[in-house]
Amino acid sequence: MDQVLPWLTYLGSHFAVIFFILLAWILTKQRKLLRHLILLYGIQSVVIYGLKFLVKRERPLFFLEMASKLSKGPGEILDPSFPSAHTVFAFMMATLLSFWFPRYRIIFYISAGFIGWTRIYLALHYPTDIVAGALLGYGMTKLFLKYFPLLVDPVCNSSVFFF
Predict the structure, then answer these.
(1) 87: in domain
(2) Is the pTM of this model over 0.70?
């Protein structure tokens, strides 16, 4: 697991969210969707990093003196721990996918929870960072969906996606 989880944890990274947004836009070809997803991503990023630098909680791996095990490459962890941005973004994507494909919502939320768990396993976050990230990702996305409908089919006036 020590070899696989460092790769799986990136399913909640900024790169994964940008890929998700671009893929949704490519598949739908709707600029409104692209604008709304970028807006949601931006709002969540501002909230996450505002909280991170307000709380300034040290990551567990620094507390446990495990930081020397990290690679010194690009993407080195420099920001505080609380809340987990990976978990926020994983739950954002899970909530959006659950909105578009409600039949598979259990799979989406279990996957998002798994991404959060990988952050604890890798000593990058405390459990409360993950819980806060999950609540923020889910809650902010639900509020966003309420006030900014992502897609409305003009023919039947119902929410749709690309399937």
Answers:
(1) yes
(2) yes
